[in-house]
């Protein structure tokens, strides 16, 4: 905590006895430098309605209309006991002090940044302001707080009173906090780190997962989350954070997956039918080996059990499409439904390196389904016996040399695509499909899928030529990426989502994505000219993320992004990218600078009867507050003659009562008939005492070390089990260049 709850002078020898304890907590004080936070431990917000009383905070703060009315009522209760002269002299002081509950820095002013510390009765006041208030209105202290110690120790002792309300960093005390341009310049906007990155925070939602490749919701108002592991198991997570003991679906006996590091085969995609609530249908995309030992991709339809809403019926599987895979890599894997109700499937180019299949490669060959975006109607039936029909407006239905399923082509291996829900108010952007297309060895790219579009591969990689001959002969109508980055930024893109949730309004419209190889998180912002600007996202700030439950580190191999039913954004990552290693976690993005007004984002999930045992979530990652509260191993400083600033702590000793004199006052009767003092204002000359300022000490959370290097190679004929704890990003990169690894895990 940042400020004092009592005066150390009240306990003889206090400073000498706690010199080491004081030094140990300096890191905590520095790290918890005031950041925008409310008394309920959440970020500030923009009140949905006008604030009549604490109007200074009606644009951004910690009070809604109900809280504002409550503070106003408390103010008038106090003013009933103050004479007319006191109204004029003390009214503004009392209003300002009460309204600090609405300040964006309320938690800092009241020592509420850490829920483990006791809440202050009065906010932190700057010494000059405090002295003036005490001089003019000290008798009002007993009306502002019921704390007997403050009333007895400080009503007549200005120094003790202002020491109690002193904050170590005087930039944050009231009213200085209102005048500090550095603190208020971008208040309420997404905070920017020192290097210009967007400062966001995370909460850990799930852990112990084996390469979690996706998380989807059923859009059935139950707000359940379905998380799939690469081995072929889908788990159900309930709105309370618990997981059902029995999986939704377990087909690991069918799915082709190995423990090899970076193997791209396995369970890769899943999508619920838009009418799942009524028809119970969903779709999956996975690797398998047929009876002739041929590796294939299978897309199939299944149904949920009629007797259990949390269990799929594996016997209901109906094959929609099977594709032979010529190599172990570039398997695609995305399934999704567009706003048009049709299913979109994203396939890889067949694998190896450089799309070496045929004269132009698979991606440019519209007669094959590899290296494509496909669109089919899963509710229709084809006259030729196919278990789906072709949407009549597919771009190549009249081209005899093209497969009618093809919607777009020229893609290498799109790893993770998402549909934009559109702006919550204007619906701008609704229906756009964003994809991350993994590059060969120079560029990673983000694309927006358009009907009939050619995305250039293998002629182009990013904005540049890859196959020079094909590139020079390619059409000028090729669809260019909205963004591409080189190896100095990352080496394997993982596509993300456009944020359209409710809880973090600052993030609306940001496309958030990442890089698998280096764990980099990034965001794209579209400007008025439809150009996209990239900013890095930083998660490692202990200062900005010092909220309950928030973490500032994560497992670095980013496998996938996800969106829950309410539109909030998540990502999945692991510290060891093997399909059988239970080191994967799910994290939720949080904007620490601003949240939605209380009550705006509440929803009531439709209850679902559960037959399986619920397993409560047990977090593994240490929160920022837990890290800050860990005992310091730093040696104590040498004894100094300089007085040490008071540090809040728990003590069994009681503070001595400071002698005080009673103020002359008349008495009045309250509505209940009880007598209470009628306070008279007093004006006396005074000298102000300026306290010393404690320099903040920052502390950052170290990133978890990467696992050690392993020596095995990815092959299709020899199964090599990973050595315990062995992994190296260099080895993964080597395989990328050899064409044996090029998607995102």
From TrEMBL:
Biased segments, Basic residues type: 707-722
Record domain Glucose/Sorbosone dehydrogenase: where: 210-537
Lineage, top ranks: Eukaryota, Metazoa, Chordata, Craniata, Vertebrata
Stated family: Belongs to the HHIP family.
Keywords: Disulfide bond, Glycoprotein, Secreted, Signal
Domain Folate receptor-like: 50-199
Bias-annotated ranges (Low complexity): 631-644, 660-671
Annotated localization: Secreted
Name by which UniProt lists this protein: HHIP like 2
Bias (Basic and acidic residues): 679-694, 727-745
Cellular component terms per the entry's GO annotation: extracellular region
Sequence segments annotated as region (Disordered): 629-745
């Amino acid at each position: 905590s940042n400020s004092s709850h009592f005066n150390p002078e009240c306990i003889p020898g206090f400073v000498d006895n706690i010199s080491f304890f004081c030094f140990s907590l300096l890191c905590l004080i520095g790290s918890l430098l005031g950041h925008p936070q409310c008394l309920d431990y959440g970020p500030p917000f923009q009140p949905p309605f006008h604030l009549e009383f604490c109007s200074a905070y009606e644009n951004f703060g910690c009070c809604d209309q109900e809280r504002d009315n409550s503070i106003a009522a408390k103010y008038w209760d106090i003013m009933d006991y103050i004479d007319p002269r006191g109204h004029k002299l003390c009214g503004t002081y009392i209003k300002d002090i009460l309204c600090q509950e609405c300040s964006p820095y309320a938690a800092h002013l009241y020592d509420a940044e850490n829920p483990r510390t006791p809440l202050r009765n009065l906010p932190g006041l700057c010494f000059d302001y405090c002295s003036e208030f005490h001089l003019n209105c000290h008798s009002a202290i007993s009306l502002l707080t019921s704390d007997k110690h403050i009333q007895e120790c400080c009503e007549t002792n200005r120094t003790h009173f202002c020491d109690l309300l002193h904050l170590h960093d005087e930039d944050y005390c009231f009213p200085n906090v209102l005048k500090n341009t550095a603190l208020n310049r971008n208040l309420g906007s997404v905070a920017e780190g020192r290097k210009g990155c967007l400062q966001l925070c995370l909460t850990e939602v799930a852990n112990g997962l084996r390469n979690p490749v996706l998380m989807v919701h059923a859009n059935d108002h139950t707000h359940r989350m379905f998380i799939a592991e690469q081995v072929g198991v889908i788990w159900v997570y309930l709105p309370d954070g618990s997981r059902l003991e029995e999986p939704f679906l377990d087909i690991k006996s069918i799915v082709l997956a190995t423990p090899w590091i970076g193997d791209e085969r396995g369970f890769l995609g899943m999508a619920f039918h838009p009418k799942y609530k009524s028809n119970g249908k969903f779709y999956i995309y996975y690797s398998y080996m047929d009876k002739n030992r041929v590796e294939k991709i299978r897309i199939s339809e299944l149904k949920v059990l009629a007797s259990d809403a949390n269990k799929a019926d594996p016997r209901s599987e109906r094959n929609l499409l099977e594709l032979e895979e010529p190599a172990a890599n570039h398997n695609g894997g995305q399934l999704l439904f567009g706003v048009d109700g049709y299913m979109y499937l994203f396939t890889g180019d067949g694998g190896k390196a450089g799309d070496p299949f045929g004269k132009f490669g698979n991606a440019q060959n519209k007669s094959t389904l590899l290296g494509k975006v496909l669109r089919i109607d899963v509710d229709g039936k084809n006259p030729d016996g196919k278990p789906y029909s072709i949407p009549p407006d597919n771009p190549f239905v009249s081209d005899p040399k093209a497969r009618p399923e093809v919607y777009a082509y020229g893609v290498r291996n799109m790893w993770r695509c998402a549909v934009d829900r559109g702006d919550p108010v204007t619906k701008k952007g609704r229906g756009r499909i964003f994809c991350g297309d993994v590059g060969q060895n120079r560029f990673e790219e983000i694309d927006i899928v358009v009907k009939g579009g050619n995305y250039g591969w293998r002629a182009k990689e990013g904005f540049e030529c890859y196959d020079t001959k094909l590139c020079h002969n390619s059409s000028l109508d090729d669809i260019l990426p909205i963004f591409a980055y080189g190896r100095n930024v990352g080496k394997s893109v993982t596509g993300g989502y456009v944020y359209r949730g409710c809880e973090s309004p600052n993030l609306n419209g940001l496309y958030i994505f990442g890089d698998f190889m280096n764990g980099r998180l990034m965001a794209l912002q579209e400007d008025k000219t439809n150009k996209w600007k990239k900013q890095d996202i930083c998660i490692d700030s202990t200062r900005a993320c010092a909220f309950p439950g928030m973490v500032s580190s994560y497992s670095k191999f980013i496998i996938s992004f996800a969106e829950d039913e309410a539109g909030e954004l998540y990502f999945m990552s692991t510290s060891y990218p093997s399909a059988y290693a239970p080191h994967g976690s799910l994290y939720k993005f949080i904007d620490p600078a601003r949240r939605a007004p209380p009550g705006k984002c509440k929803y009531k999930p439709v209850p679902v009867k559960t037959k399986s045992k619920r397993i409560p979530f047990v977090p593994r990652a240490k929160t920022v507050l837990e890290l800050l509260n860990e005992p310091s191993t730093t040696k104590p400083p040498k004894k100094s003659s300089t007085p040490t600033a008071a540090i809040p702590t728990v003590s069994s000793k009681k503070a001595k009562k400071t002698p005080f004199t009673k103020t002359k006052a008349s008495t009045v009767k309250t509505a209940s008939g009880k007598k209470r003092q009628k306070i008279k204002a007093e004006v006396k000359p005074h000298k102000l005492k300026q306290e010393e300022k404690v320099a903040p000490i920052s502390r950052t959370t170290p990133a978890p070390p990467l696992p050690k290097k392993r020596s095995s190679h990815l092959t299709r004929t020899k199964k090599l089990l990973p050595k315990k704890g062995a992994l190296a990003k260099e080895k993964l990169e080597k395989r990328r260049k050899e064409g044996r690894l090029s998607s995102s895990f």
